[in-house]
Write a structure and sequence with these properties.
This protein is 45% helix and 19% strand. The protein has 325 residues and is an alpha/beta fold. It has two domains: 164 residues, Bordetella uptake gene, domain 1 (D-Maltodextrin-Binding Protein, domain 2, 3-Layer(aba) Sandwich), CATH 3.40.190.150; 108 residues, Periplasmic binding protein-like II (D-Maltodextrin-Binding Protein, domain 2), CATH 3.40.190.10. Strands 1, 2, 3, 4, 5, 6, 7, 8, 9 and 10 form a ten-stranded mixed β-sheet that branches. Helix 6 links the parallel strand 5 and strand 6. The radius of gyration is 22 Å and the shape is globular. It starts with a helix and ends in a 5-residue tail after the last helix. Keywords: Signal. Belongs to the UPF0065 (bug) family. This is MFS transporter.
Length: 325
C-alpha cells in the first residue's frame, strides 16, 4: 500500500512539474529568436507570404523571426527538417497545398505528416485561375472543351510537376469535361509561366495571386476561377461551377505547422497573433491586390482540413499512378 501511494505521489509530482513547466514556458515565451522554415526557394508563393508577414509577427511576439528557405523535393526536405526539430516553440513551418498530398505521392517520406507535425492554422487561400494563351481560339471554358474534343492533342497544359495543385486540378477538370489534355511538367512556376506566356503551352491553372498581373496586362486570358464563388479581384471571370462543372471548388492555400509536441499555449499564441497580423490593414491591402482570402482557423479545424484534402486527392493520385521514390 505504501509503495502504491508513493507511486501515486510521484506521478502527481511529475504531472504538476510538467504543468508548471508549461505555464512558465508560456509566461516567458518567447525569449530567443524563432525560426520559420519555408520548404521552398525564395521568391515563390509561400515565401511571398512569409516575407511581409513575419516582420509583423516579430513585432507582436517581441523576438526576431528568421525565415529559413529549405527547398527541394516538393517541399518534403524542409518539412522533414522541421519535423525533426525540438518541439519547444522555436521552430515553425509554412506549407503549401502540396503538403496534404505529398504522403500519397512520395513513397519514402522521412516524416509522418500526421504524427510528427502539429497543425497551427491555415493562413490564407486563393482560387486557381484557368489561364489560356491569346493564341488559343477559346474565350470561354465551353469553347476550350469543344477545341479539346475536336483535336484531343491540341491542348497542352503546364504544371510545376506531377502531383502539384495545378496538375491535379487540370486532371480533375479534364475528367469532368471528358477531354484529353497533354501534360507538360516543369521544374518550377517560373519556367512554366514563361512558356505559357510564350505560347509554347496552351493553358495553365495558376494561383490567382500569380495570375492576376498577367490577366490585367492582357498577356493571358482568364477563362474561369476554381473557387465556388467569383474572386473579387477577377470579378468578370466566371467560376467553373458557373461554366457547367458541378461542385468544382479547388483552392490553393498556405498553412502553419510546428513539430509535434510543441506546447499547446504556444500553438494558440501563434494562431492568435497570425490572425491579428493577417487581418491588419497592411496585409489586407496586399491580399486584396493578390486575390487572397484570410482563413486563420483553429489547430483542430486545420488538422481536419488536412485530412480531408489528403483523402480528396488520394484516389485521383492513385488513378493517375503518380509515385515519386
Amino acid at each position: 500500500m505504501f509503495i502504491k501511494k508513493r507511486r501515486l505521489g510521484l506521478l502527481a509530482a511529475v504531472t504538476a512539474s510538467v504543468l508548471i513547466s508549461a505555464t512558465a514556458h508560456a509566461d516567458n515565451y518567447p525569449d530567443k529568436p524563432i525560426r520559420v522554415v519555408v520548404p521552398f526557394p525564395a521568391g515563390g508563393f509561400v515565401d511571398g507570404l512569409a516575407r511581409p508577414m513575419m516582420p509583423l509577427m516579430s513585432e507582436r511576439l517581441g523576438q526576431q523571426i528568421i525565415i529559413d528557405n529549405k527547398g527541394g523535393a516538393g517541399g518534403t526536405i524542409g518539412t522533414a527538417e522541421a519535423a525533426r526539430a525540438q518541439p519547444d516553440g522555436y521552430t515553425f513551418l509554412m506549407v503549401f497545398d502540396s503538403h496534404a498530398v505529398n504522403p500519397h505521392i512520395y513513397s519514402n517520406l522521412a516524416y509522418d505528416s500526421e504524427k510528427d507535425l502539429a497543425a497551427v492554422s491555415r493562413l490564407v487561400r486563393n482560387p486557381l485561375v484557368l489561364l489560356a494563351h491569346p493564341s488559343v481560339q477559346a474565350n470561354s471554358v465551353q469553347e476550350l472543351v469543344e477545341l479539346a474534343k475536336k483535336d484531343p492533342e491540341s491542348i497542352s497544359y503546364a504544371t510545376v510537376g506531377p502531383g502539384s495543385s495545378n496538375h491535379l486540378t487540370a486532371e480533375l477538370f479534364a475528367r469532368q469535361a471528358g477531354v484529353k489534355l497533354t501534360h507538360i511538367p516543369y521544374r518550377g512556376g517560373g519556367p512554366a509561366q514563361t512558356d505559357l506566356l510564350g505560347g509554347h503551352v496552351s493553358i495553365m491553372f495558376l494561383s490567382s495571386s500569380l495570375a492576376i498581373p498577367h490577366v490585367k496586362s492582357g498577356k493571358l486570358k482568364a477563362l474561369a476561377v476554381t473557387s465556388a464563388e467569383r474572386s473579387p479581384a477577377l470579378a468578370d471571370t466566371p467560376t467553373l461551377i458557373e461554366s457547367g462543372f458541378a461542385d468544382f471548388d479547388v483552392q490553393s492555400w498556405v498553412g502553419l505547422l510546428a513539430p509535434a509536441g510543441t506546447p499547446a499555449p504556444v500553438l494558440a499564441r501563434w494562431g492568435e497573433e497570425a490572425t491579428h497580423v493577417l487581418n491588419s490593414p497592411e496585409m489586407q491591402d496586399r491580399f486584396k491586390q493578390q486575390g487572397l482570402e484570410v482563413v486563420a482557423d483553429s489547430p483542430e479545424s486545420f488538422a481536419a482540413f488536412l485530412k480531408k484534402e489528403g483523402d480528396r486527392w488520394g484516389s485521383l493520385i492513385k488513378e493517375l499512378g503518380i509515385q515519386i521514390n
